[in-house]
Design a protein that fits this description.
Largest sheet: none
Number of strands: 0
Strand content: under 5%
Structural class: mainly alpha
């Protein structure tokens, strides 16, 4: 594995966790270090770090707060 790829994985706890949970990435990244972008995208989907996931989470929080306010009236 290229040193830059391994350093990026070791520097980010979520990437490291995803790397250890999905062991097939060891072989994939050893063979093709260019697939690191795909590895990062998959990690973001699993840990819900995409912009759409963050927006949906904020909307859910706002809806929960508004329902609590409505229930207390």
């Amino acid at each position: 594995m290229h040193h830059t790829v391994s350093n990026q994985i070791l520097d980010n706890p979520k990437l490291l966790s995803h790397f250890m949970e999905q062991s097939y990435w060891i072989k994939e990244l050893n063979r093709n270090p260019d697939s690191f972008k795909l590895f990062q995208k998959q990690m973001k989907v699993i840990y819900k770090e995409r912009p759409t996931d963050k927006i949906n989470s904020a909307i859910d929080g706002i809806e929960m707060i508004s329902s609590i306010i409505e229930a207390t009236k």
